[in-house]
Amino acid sequence: MPKANRYFLPGHIWHITHRCHKQEFLLKFAYDRRAWIRWLFEAKKRYSLCILNYVATSNHIHLLVKDRGDNEIPKSMQLVAGRVAQEFNQRKKRKGAFWEDRYHATAIASGDHFARCLTYMDLNMVRAGAVEDPVDWPESGYAELSQTKQRYHLLDHQVLEELLGVTGNSEMYSTRRGWVEEAMRRNLLERDSCWSGSLAVGDEEFVAGVKTGLGIKGWHRTVTKEGQGFVLRENEADYAILPLKCQF
Length: 248
Prior knowledge:
Blueprint (H helix, E strand, L loop, with lengths): L2 E2 L8 E7 L10 H18 L2 E7 L3 E7 L5 H21 L9 E7 L3 H11 L1 H4 L13 H6 L10 H8 L3 H18 L8 H4 E5 L1 H10 L9 E4 L2 E5 L15
Parallel strand pairs: 1-5, 5-6
Antiparallel strand pairs: 2-4, 2-5, 3-4, 6-8, 7-8
């Protein structure tokens, strides 16, 4: 069962990543990725999980959520990871761990940093070489936005619209589409560990605030300037950033 290695600060946006055990391709079939989406939908119903984006790849997942202050994120992660693993092992007559022991959470500032994180997630499977356009990967928030009919609607459109300053699904999708096309045109597809290997990403004030909010867990972390913003880096001993295998 996964255990949260972070405190979730109310009101913050969190980018969560969780890898399959030993980076095995346990989600390589669409059936299993859809199972993860079904249970994520159940977590949304049970715990009012505020989902802003998601991508299920073949050996790990990305999830962007906003903390409402009701312990809904750890409860949701426990439900989804536990039920997906249980169903998979029963069906395959398999024993052993399905997920890595811990999922990782990174606090993301609103504004430009939030937009960059959305785009980074949207381009995950393009970056992996699995598809040429992110709309072609069904198990993702980007694909959900592009479809008028879908069995499971996971995204919290009201919160997304407020964060992006847009009105309606059409404007939201066209805005996201513009960011994706610009990134692909400029070939901005490199993997950036700040989104999955940090405790926080944003401007200096935001990252310093997260450090303070984490209390003792933030004492020995340093706020550093990286790229277009600041990050609060994780200690390697606490969470090793492993080289990702092919994510098809």
